[in-house]
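Entry 14. Structure prediction run on the chain below.
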Amino acid sequence: MMKVDLKEKAKELNVPLEVVARVLEELLREEKLRGVIDHENHVLIRYSQEELENLIRLLETKQISIKELSSELNLSPEQLRLVIYELLKTGRVKGLFTRDGEFISYSVMEDKIIKLTDEAKELNVHDLSAKLSVPEEKVREIIEKIAEKVINTLKPYRQINIIDLCRQTKLPENFTIAILRELILSGKIIGSLDMVNNVFVKEHIATVTTKGKPPSYWYLVPILLGVLGGIAGYFAVKDEDKTMANNLIALGIVSTILSLLLLYLLLL
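Output returned:
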């Protein structure tokens, strides 16, 4: 990757620095140029398509130390983060930065969760979060995704040998047993594990739904309709996002007070 000093480039072209930055941003937006701008240090970090593909491949297959990789690429850790943020924003890479200064893709995180759980022979979200240095909610999201695959595989069967289930889901045995145990305890499947015959016997599978975050346009309702809009919004989103529901009520109250105050001032 190549770094271009924008101050020197502006001096060379005899134009203001802001003009150079604005032109480069337009070129980047139109994808006529590959790279990102470090506005704080006035540097363009430019890379080729090959360099970009190599970085994406590395990020998707390994847990990366930001400090070590930035040194290899002759970038500062902050500059490497800017490059990765751009890849995250465009969806070319999916993952997150860990608490201990690394980057881990969701695919690598899934592999590590499976491996660690298989070794421990139990599913412990708190321990997995600590070992991977990622938020517990992210660990749960990945486990839910894997669990949904297990549930879908179980649907046609009344009874299934655990080894056969492992073969179909491509998951190791101890991990599969741990997932089945968690699904039974959480009530998402009703059945039993026969460890003598290494069989899972199913009675019922609950419907699994993954609720997304309510759309932000709900905030317009209390702004336009005041308290009534806040109440309507509260009941519409409370099961999906309790915090947002409470915010809609508060926004409705504030909107009503401001409307009454404005009306009062107009009538004076």
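Strands lie at 2-5, 35-38, 43-46, 64-65, 95-97, 102-105, 159-161, 189-194, 199-205.
Filed with the rest of this week's runs.
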